[in-house]
Amino acid sequence: MSRYDVEKQDQPRYFRFEEDFVEDNIRCIPMIVRFKLDACGIKLKLSQWSKFSASERKRLGDQPCVEPAQISAYRQYLQQLIAVRTGHEATLLAIEEKPCLGR
Fold first, then answer.
1. Comparing C-alpha atoms, which of 56, 58, 61, 64 is closest to residue 5?
2. Which of 62, 73, 87, 93 is at 20 to 30 A from 33, Cα to Cα?
3. DSSP assignment of the chain
């Protein structure tokens, strides 16, 4: 099991505080996507997110990103999406081995 395993069935996909912008075409980057960005090592700016279609945003929330093959597929899809929608390459980040989530 991955340190970023946020895809458990007994957990909500989105937090309650995100309900307003999730219902409005997912206009802000939800936490579920932020966890996946950390897992695959890509920095995504809100200006880039805003250029994605509603279905692309939903896919980024729904697409699994736990196992190594899933993380790789997620990274490749997101890199391609950023390039196509913005005309720029994705900004890559180092993936922390043991992230400190409780600062």
1. 64
2. 87
3. --TT----TTS-SS-GGGHHHHHTTT-S--HHHHHHHHHHTEE--HHHHTTS-HHHHHHHHHS---SHHHHHHHHHHHHHHHHHHHSSPPEE-PPPSS-----
SS (H, E, C) 28-47: CCCHHHHHHHHHHCEECCHH
Phi, psi of 74 (to 5 degrees): -65, -45
The token pair that represents 13 in the structure block: 């996909």
Q: What ranges do the domains of the chain cover?
A: 16-92
Among the listed residues 17, 18, 77, the one whose alpha carbon sits nearest the alpha carbon of residue 42 = 77
Q: What is the chain's length?
A: 103
Please report, in angstroms and rounded to a whole number, the separation of the first and last CA atoms in the chain.
23
